[in-house]
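Researcher: Let's do a round of design. I'm pasting the C-alpha cells now; please hold your answer until I've finished.
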C-alpha cells in the first residue's frame, strides 16, 4: 500500500510547489562529488550517540525491517522540485524506538559513505515522512540517488536527505552538517524559502 503524503505542504500554506521552485519530470542527480562505490556486503547502518541501544544492521537486516511506501515530493534548494516520488523505507520514528533514544537527545547528525553529513533538530526528524529509503518507484534505489539507502525529508530541502547513509547519530547539543557549515539553512523549510542561513 502506498501512503500519499504529498499534502504535507498544507502545514505551511496553500501551495504545493514552494516559492521559487519549478517542477521537473526528470530526477536530476546532485552530489558534492562522485557517487561512492559501495560493496553491498560491506555496507552497515549504525545508530549511536544518545541512545539506550547502539544498533548495527547489514543491508539484508535493514531491508527486512518493516517498511512503508509513500508518495512524496522532493524539493532541491537549487530550484527544482519533483512531485510524486515513490519511496520505500523505514520511518525515522521506528529507528528512534528501536534504539531507545535518550530524553536529552535534541539533535541528529546523519553520516554517509562520501563523508557528507547533514543535521536536523530531533523534533524535525521525528515524522513518519522521514524515511531511510531503499527503493524508488518500486526498484532498488539507484546508486546515483543514494543507494543502497538514503534519507528523504519531503518537508525540507533535499540536502537534508543524506544519500549513501551509513549512520545516524543522536546528539545532546546541535552540530552542523556539510552544507550547513557552508551557509545553507539549518532548518531548510522550502515553503518559507529557508535556503541560506
Ligand atoms: N551523501 C550525500 N548526500 C547528499 C548529497 C551529497 O553530496 N552526498 N547531496 C545532497 C543534495 S545537495 C541534494 S539536492 C540531494 C540530491 O539528491 P538526488 O541526487 O537524488 O537528486 O542529495 C543530498 N544528499
Ligand atoms: Mo541540493
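Researcher: That's everything. Go ahead.
Model: Designed sequence:
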Amino acid at each position: 500500500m502506498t501512503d500519499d503524503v504529498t499534502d504535507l505542504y498544507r502545514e505551511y500554506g496553500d501551495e504545493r510547489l514552494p516559492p521559487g521552485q519549478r517542477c521537473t519530470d526528470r530526477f536530476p542527480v546532485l552530489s558534492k562529488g562522485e557517487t561512492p562505490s559501495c560493496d553491498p556486503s560491506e555496507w552497515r547502518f549504525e545508530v549511536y550517540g544518545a541512545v539506550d541501544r547502539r544498533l548495527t544492521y547489514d543491508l539484508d537486516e535493514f531491508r527486512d525491517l518493516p517498511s512503508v511506501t509513500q508518495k512524496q515530493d522532493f524539493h532541491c534548494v537549487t530550484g527544482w522540485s519533483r512531485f510524486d516520488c515513490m519511496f520505500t523505507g523505514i520511518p525515522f520514528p521506528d529507528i528512534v524506538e528501536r534504539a531507545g533514544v535518550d530524553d536529552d537527545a535534541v539533535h541528529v547528525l546523519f553520516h554517509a559513505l562520501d563523508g557528507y553529513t547533514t543535521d536536523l533538530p530531533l523534533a524535525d526528524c521525528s515524522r513518519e515522512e522521514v524515511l531511510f529509503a531503499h527503493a524508488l518507484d518500486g526498484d532498488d534505489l539507484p546508486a546515483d540517488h543514494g543507494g543502497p539507502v538514503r534519507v528523504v525529508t519531503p518537508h525540507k530541502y533535499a540536502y537534508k536527505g543524506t544519500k549513501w547513509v551509513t549512520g545516524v547519530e543522536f546528539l545532546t547539543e546541535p552540530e552542523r552538517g556539510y552544507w550547513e557549515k557552508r551557509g545553507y539553512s539549518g532548518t531548510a523549510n522550502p515553503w518559507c524559502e529557508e535556503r541560506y542561513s
